[in-house]
Design a protein that fits this description.
The protein is mostly helical. It folds into 2 domains: 101 residues, Arc Repressor Mutant, subunit A (Orthogonal Bundle); 99 residues. Strands 1-3-2 form a 3-stranded antiparallel β-sheet, covered by helices on one side. The longest helix is centred in the last third of the chain and has 30 residues. It is globular, with a radius of gyration of 22 Å. This is Transcriptional regulator. It comes from Guptibacillus hwajinpoensis. InterPro entries: WH-like_DNA-bd_sf, WH_DNA-bd_sf.
């Protein structure tokens, strides 16, 4: 297993989480792509940046088809965010398990080349104004450079979760933490409907551990571990409750 350290792409989990947060704010990814990236990061802790998750496990965790996962992986790979590697079996030979590497892609923005605008004829000047995609791209780059406050999160993050995390983290970090909670809930607690309260408990446990210097790697990795434990417990409770109801009210 130590040979797999050659594939590590980050020196620490904290740096990986920080990079992923920047990637999510830099690229316009789909919902499946964002959730898949967080899922991969949650399983890239032992060897930082290296995930062993199989396609079936990814699809099951996000409750989507394998084809959807394959499309998301291809999209992330085309952007340089991840890289898929097939290992070789050392004894029997042939291909072994596939690894997914989270790549530290350089997030740079290129300035659009400015060209002199051609003179418009009188006929063209009377035509309807068209939308300039180049101008729109520049506006987007400007928007990405601006700071946001918590009012921007109300459509994406529950207000109760915001209220708890607001004193401790920035809006961008709060958005990322809630994204982790959603992915973790799909994997470990598919039967649990209300995930806000367990996510809040996991966050409070992580903050407490951080205050008492009990976190060895990074806050993000510890938060994922707390989420996993809390959601697994809630899943067992929900399954037990459903089984008891089934005994009381058999079909």
């Amino acid at each position: 297993m130590d040979k797999l350290r050659q594939y590590e792409t980050f020196s620490s989990v904290e740096k990986m989480d920080e990079h992923i947060s920047k990637v999510l704010s830099h690229f316009e990814l789909s919902k499946n792509e964002r959730e898949l990236l967080w899922l991969l990061s949650g399983h890239s802790v032992k060897f930082v940046g290296v995930s062993f998750l199989k396609l079936d496990s990814m699809a099951k965790a996000l409750e989507v088809s394998k084809k959807t996962i394959q499309r998301a992986l291809k999209s992330l790979s085309d952007l340089g965010i991840i890289k898929r590697i097939r290992t070789i079996r050392p004894v029997r030979g042939g291909f072994g398990a596939s690894l997914t590497l989270i790549c530290p892609v350089e997030l740079t923005t290129r300035e659009e080349a400015t060209e002199p605008a051609p003179e418009r004829s009188q006929e063209q000047s009377g035509s309807k104004e068209t939308f300039s995609f180049k101008a729109f791209s520049k506006d987007i780059k400007y928007i990405r450079q601006q700071e946001i406050d918590y009012s921007f999160l109300t459509e994406f993050v529950p207000s109760e979760f915001i209220r708890v995390v607001k004193p401790f983290v920035s809006p961008e970090e709060a958005y990322s933490l809630w994204g982790k909670a959603q992915v973790c809930a799909k994997r470990y607690a598919p039967a649990v409907m209300d995930i806000i309260e367990p996510a809040v408990r996991a966050f409070k446990a992580s903050v407490t551990a951080y205050k008492f210097n009990r976190i060895k790697k990074s806050f993000g990795a510890y938060f994922w571990g707390s989420l996993s434990g809390v959601f697994a417990y809630e899943q067992r409770k929900e399954v037990k409750y459903c089984n008891e109801l089934a005994k009381l009210y058999p079909k």
